[in-house]
C-alpha cells in the first residue's frame, strides 16, 4: 500500500485536514489523518491514493456523508489512542510513558556493548529503533524519549544532555581507537539490570537487524521510513508510525498488535 504511494497518502491526509478541519493542525496532526487514509484504503477496494486526491479536489464529491462519517470515526479512534497514552503519563510522542534516564542508560550500555563502531550518531539511531519497535510490540517505548525529525534523521530530544549525564554517571565511556573516530563503549554493565526481559528481547532484535550496519547505512534506511517521511522537519515523530516500519519483528500474540491500524 505504501512505497510509491507515500507522497499521495500524505497529500490526501493534509488535503483532508485543510477541507474538513482548516487551521486545526494541533488537534488533527498528520499521523492521525495518515492512519485514517490508510484504513480507508484497506477497507475500500475501489479506493486509491490518486482517486482520493481527485475526490478531495472535486466539490461535488468532497461532501460525501459516508466519507465524512468514516473520517470522523477513524480520527476519533486515533485521538483515543493518544488520550490513552496521555493517561499513562506519556503521549504518542513519548511512547506512552515518562522519560527514564535509567532505561535510556541501560539501553545505551546494552547497544554499546554488543554493536561494533558505535558513534554518538549511531547510538541515537539504534535508540530510535529500539524505542519504536518496543512500542510496536507492547504499546509503549522503553526510554519514554520523544524523537524529533531533523535533517539527518530522527533525533532523541535532549540527546546531548542525556549523553553527557550517562558519561558523568559512568554508564558509558568514549574511546578513541587508532583509526581516530570516537567510539561509545559500555562502562557499567550493571545498569542493564534496569531493563526487563521483554525490553532486552527488543534490544536483541535491534542489534541483530541494525547493529552491524554503519551509521550512514542506518541513516539511509531511516530516510525511507514513513516515520521520517511523514513528519515535518522540527516536529515530534508519532510512535504510531512504528507500525509502518520497513522491518519489524513478528507481533506478540495477545497484545492486539496484529490488529493495529
Description:
- The chain is mainly alpha-helical.
- The protein folds into two domains: 85 residues, no CATH class; 146 residues, no CATH class.
- Helices cover 52% and strands 6% of the residues.
- The chain has eleven helices and four strands, in the order αααααααββαββααα.
- The strands form two sheets. The protein has a two-stranded antiparallel sheet. The protein has a two-stranded antiparallel sheet with strand order 3-4.
- A hairpin with a 7-residue loop joins strand 3 and strand 4.
- Helix 1 crosses helix 2, helix 1 runs parallel beside helix 3 and helix 6 packs across helix 7.
- The longest helix is centred in the N-terminal third of the chain and has 23 residues.
- It starts with 5 loop residues before the first helix and ends in a 32-residue tail after the last helix.
- The model has no long low-confidence stretch (mean pLDDT 84).
Amino acid at each position: 500500500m505504501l512505497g510509491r504511494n507515500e507522497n499521495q497518502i500524505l497529500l490526501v491526509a493534509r488535503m483532508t485536514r485543510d477541507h474538513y478541519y482548516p487551521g486545526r493542525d494541533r488537534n488533527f496532526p498528520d499521523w492521525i489523518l495518515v492512519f485514517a487514509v490508510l484504513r480507508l484504503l484497506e477497507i475500500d477496494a475501489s479506493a486509491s491514493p490518486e482517486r482520493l486526491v481527485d475526490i478531495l479536489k472535486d466539490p461535488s464529491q468532497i461532501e460525501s456523508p459516508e466519507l465524512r462519517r468514516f473520517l470522523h470515526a477513524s480520527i476519533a479512534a486515533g485521538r483515543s489512542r493518544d488520550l490513552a497514552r496521555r493517561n499513562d503519563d506519556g503521549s504518542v510522542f513519548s511512547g506512552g510513558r515518562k522519560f527514564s534516564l535509567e532505561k535510556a542508560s541501560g539501553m545505551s550500555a546494552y547497544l554499546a556493548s554488543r554493536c561494533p563502531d558505535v558513534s554518538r550518531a549511531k547510538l541515537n539511531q539504534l535508540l530510535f529503533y529500539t524505542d519504536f519497535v518496543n512500542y510496536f510490540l507492547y504499546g509503549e517505548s522503553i526510554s519514554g524519549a520523544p524523537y524529533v525529525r531533523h535533517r539527518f534523521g530522527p533525533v532523541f530530544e535532549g540527546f546531548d544532555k542525556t549523553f553527557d549525564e550517562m558519561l558523568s554517571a559512568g554508564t558509558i565511556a568514549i574511546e578513541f581507537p587508532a583509526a581516530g573516530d570516537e567510539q561509545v563503549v559500555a562502562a557499567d554493565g550493571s545498569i542493564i539490570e534496569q531493563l526487563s526481559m521483554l525490553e532486552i528481547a527488543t534490544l536483541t532484535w535491534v542489534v541483530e537487524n541494525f547493529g552491524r550496519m554503519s551509521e550512514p547505512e542506518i541513516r539511509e534506511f531511516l530516510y525511507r521510513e514513513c516515520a521520517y517521511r511523514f513528519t515535518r522537519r522540527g516536529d515530534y515523530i508519532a510512535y504510531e508510525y512504528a507500525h509502518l516500519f520497513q522491518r519489524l519483528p513478528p507481533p506478540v500474540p495477545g497484545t492486539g498488535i496484529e490488529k493495529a491500524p
